[in-house]
Design goal:
With 279 residues, the chain is α/β, with parallel strands linked by helices. It has 9 helices and 9 strands. It has helices at residues 22-31, 60-73, 93-100, 117-123, 128-144, 167-184, 206-214, 235-244, 263-270; strands at residues 6-7, 36-39, 79-87, 107-111, 150-151, 187-191, 219-222, 249-254, 257-262.
Length: 279
């Protein structure tokens, strides 16, 4: 069976915490049975916003050139696409809107990075449960801007005081956020890097994923690779989890248009080439 699926979330060294050149990610995608990969490196931000984890605005042209170089090197073998992971931060929607016009992005992820110094300074008031609720409210806010195709790692906040995270206590808040997200038409990511975080499960976890299925919210798989070896890592496990939650399709974006494919076809196309969850 021909390759037909994309890994839609990966980074470059420009974010200052990833390793490997785009061509190395592309080579891994080719070896692991993907049709293509989409780079979604951390967006530049204005006013020196959390500069330690992202490219500077002046480096954005270099980012575009790096991805174009890899696309040309793998033309006819693997489809390499330019995307962006853009921070959602209340009051900075104007920047995300401006950035979307700077290049022909194939896929734009929206992320609420609760652990940024700026986010915690503004929204952390010492109450963990209220902080969780604030995060999920912002997740829904980000969907309603219309600026993003997919919401990245949508329950990432469970890694903040993970021992206190209680899905059942937060379920009403999460359901309210998901109602708004479903109405927006925005997709949500199933991020496989979550199995290696403080709260070791996929982002989102099974409870939230089931609520997403109940609302017919499309799901896009992303490895959130910060090194080439992570490209498409744990996708076979993610497909099993999706199937267990009742999903029959999984999605990806090209030129900011969503494409849906059956779970079975994706699994068949990837075959046994995918790495499994590390024990």
């Amino acid at each position: 069976m021909k390759p037909l699926y994309y890994d839609s979330h990966m980074h470059t060294p420009l974010c200052k915490h990833a390793e490997g050149e785009p061509e190395e990610y592309a080579e891994m995608g080719l070896q692991r049975g993907l049709k293509g990969i989409t780079f979604t490196c951390h967006s530049p931000m204005p006013n020196n916003f959390w500069p330690e984890v992202r490219m500077a605005p002046s480096e954005f042209p270099r980012y575009v050139e790096m991805i174009e170089r890899a696309a040309q090197a793998y033309a006819g073998k693997l489809d390499v696409r330019l995307g962006m992971e853009t921070d959602y931060f209340p009051g900075m929607e104007w920047w995300a809107e401006k950035l979307n016009e700077e290049a022909a992005f194939s896929h734009v992820l929206g992320s609420v990075h609760f652990f940024s110094p700026e986010y915690k300074a503004r929204f952390w008031k010492g109450d963990v449960m209220e902080f969780y609720k604030t995060y999920f409210g912002h997740l829904a806010d980000s969907a309603e801007t219309g600026l993003f195709d997919t919401l990245a790692h949508p329950d990432l906040v469970k890694n903040f005081y993970p021992e206190q995270y209680d899905f059942e206590r937060l379920q009403d808040t999460i359901e309210s956020a998901l109602d708004r997200i479903a109405a927006s038409g925005v997709a949500m990511e199933l991020n496989t890097s979550g199995v290696h975080k403080k709260f070791p499960e996929l982002n989102p976890g099974p409870g939230m994923l089931q609520l997403m299925r109940n609302r017919n919210i499309p799901v896009v798989l992303g490895s959130d690779s910060h090194s080439p070896r992570r490209v498409s890592a744990d996708f076979s496990y993610a497909l099993d989890v999706l199937e267990g939650a009742g999903f029959t399709k999984v999605s990806y974006f090209l030129n900011r248009k969503r494409f849906d494919v059956s779970l079975g076809d994706v699994r068949d196309s990837l075959l046994a080439q995918l790495p499994q969850v590390l024990g």
